[in-house]
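Researcher: Please translate sequence to C-alpha cells.
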Amino acid sequence: QVQLVESGGGLVQPGGSLRLSCAASGFTFSSYVMSWYRQVAGKEREMVTQISKAGDSTNYAESAKGRFTISRDNGKNTVYLQMNSLKPEDTAVYYCNAQRYVTYWGQGTQLTVSS
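Model: Translation complete:
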C-alpha cells in the first residue's frame, strides 16, 4: 500500500522557520522524483520545489528560492522541506508528491504563517 505521510505543519510567526517531512512507503522511494506542492483554498495547487531521485538536482519556484530547501534521505524514505523567513503568503496546505510513471500524493499538512 502506497503511503506518503506529511508532518511538521503548524502555526508559525512571520520570519520564522519550519521543517516539513514526508515519509514514504509502499514503493521504491529512490526511483521517484519527489516534490512539494502547496495549495490555498480556492486556488490551484502549485509546485514549490522538486528534487531528483538521487538528490543531486533541485529546482524551486521563484517564491521559494533562497528561503526553502528540499532534501531527501533515500535510506529513510523521507523527503524534507526546510522553510525559513516564512511569510503570511506561504500559508497553505503543503503536499508531498512522488512521480515516476505514476504519481502519488500525500494527504497534506497545513502551514499557517501569522502573528
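Researcher: Any highlights?
Model: The CA atoms of residues 30 and 53 lie 5 Å apart.
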